[in-house]
């Protein structure tokens, strides 16, 4: 059989399978990510149906998937969003990082995987899934809730931290020595900082340069620019994903919205390919041995995320119920934990890291929406059993400020 | 009672939320999504942080709602209402209407609803008192007069696709 025909058949079957899985997930109202991972597990090494010719294309597709995921994330935010959140919410960001990254690092050290794997696993347990959480908030009708800005600003800070964290692990995974590694890291951070400053100051000019009325040209220019910057970032050891994220930040206004609409379908396609790719490189037989640590890690970090959300919401002056809701909503991990683990898997530092991350994400992407829904009722029931039921407090007439920017009255 | 104050809160990655507290201390909010959709929420009295109701509206639905909320509201469809309970309304036929190309008699409007079609507006002209053999076309606007129920039923019949 001709290899191009084999490739088309294999790749077509994968995409079609993903589409059907996605429909199945949609019927039950949950994220398709775990199904994509499972599909990858089924086809990969030691799976049911090892793939042949399309392996290479899937690998490239996966790389594009990561780049597009981060580009779209950057498009969601404006540089001003990031800076204002950083200024007002940094304590919440620090608490979030400390509470949720440390359990991952501790687990890796306990298993004796060494410091580099510890830094990677810390990232896996630290970053919540903005995609899953935004969807859950919409599904539960909580977009208008007052704890929602708190949840979102924690997500913004995590995403911003990725811009610093990814170059660090890229340098660590490249196995650079301390001197060379520090130099690379300094370059990486310098570049990231520079791009952020340029985005805040001159983002408008870049957007004007990219802007086009014709969707086709806009698509080509944005995609080309993103891949180019991602490639250059990769050369400078900053990591391609961060380059793409920074391009997304730098584009704003109409261009960002137009590009968002055009690139969404591409992102969906390649991100699905990426999750499959990750599953392909994980041998299903390697999951059962790490299932117990994954489960323990999932339970501990679900608890720490709830604590993080509770604390951040309390700081913003939200009532007890809202604090529990904020905590429960933050539990879901997803695409970015896999992105981080994917970097480690391709560099091959610790063979058990991939399976552990897969199992961990599978558990939390399924549990996340449930904790978002049920943490508050359960916590309320448990806390009121110990106390006299209190009379519900009347609404406070004045609005408390729980927003990064002060309330701006609107002329009516 | 001062002028009502809307406050706005940015929701990074989603859009902007506008809040309003009414004189009765009930809170309402509108989340403006970037894609033009809106989410209208009303808050619970026992848990001021949570929504009792949260409805996702499309851009068109929001526009219709704004229209109904305007203090000087006159429905663009409504010509006049009399105290005798008669209503006159403009009803537009869509281009994919079941009645596109059929004659007016086929609708059996007066028999079914008791409402009368007194005129048809087509492009820049108005055809008064169309006869039962008048051929309707998509895009026509029919002026219907009858009781409130009759006109509602007429609108349902004319809305068939």
Automatic annotation (TrEMBL), chain A:
It is found in: Membrane. GO terms for biological process: proton transmembrane transport. Residues 20-371 form the Cation/H+ exchanger transmembrane domain. InterPro entries: Cation/H_exchanger_TM (IPR006153), Na+/solute_symporter_sf (IPR038770). Gene3D superfamilies: 1.20.1530.20. It holds the Pfam family Na_H_Exchanger. Keywords: Membrane, Transmembrane, Transmembrane helix, Transport. It comes from the Bacteria. Its main location: membrane. It is a multi-pass membrane protein. One of its GO terms (molecular function) is antiporter activity. Coiled coil: none annotated. One of its GO terms (cellular component) is membrane. The chain crosses the membrane at residues 6-26, 33-51, 57-78, 116-138, 150-173, 179-198, 218-236, 293-312, 324-345, 357-375. Residues 381-412 are annotated as: Disordered. Belongs to the monovalent cation:proton antiporter 2 (CPA2) transporter (TC 2.A.37) family. This is Cation:proton antiporter.
From TrEMBL, chain B:
SUPFAM superfamilies: TrkA C-terminal domain-like. GO terms for biological process: potassium ion transport. It comes from Streptomyces liliifuscus. This is Cation:proton antiporter regulatory subunit. Transmembrane segments: none annotated. Gene3D superfamilies: Regulator of K+ conductance, C-terminal domain (3.30.70.1450). GO terms for molecular function: monoatomic cation transmembrane transporter activity. Residues 76-160 form the RCK C-terminal domain.
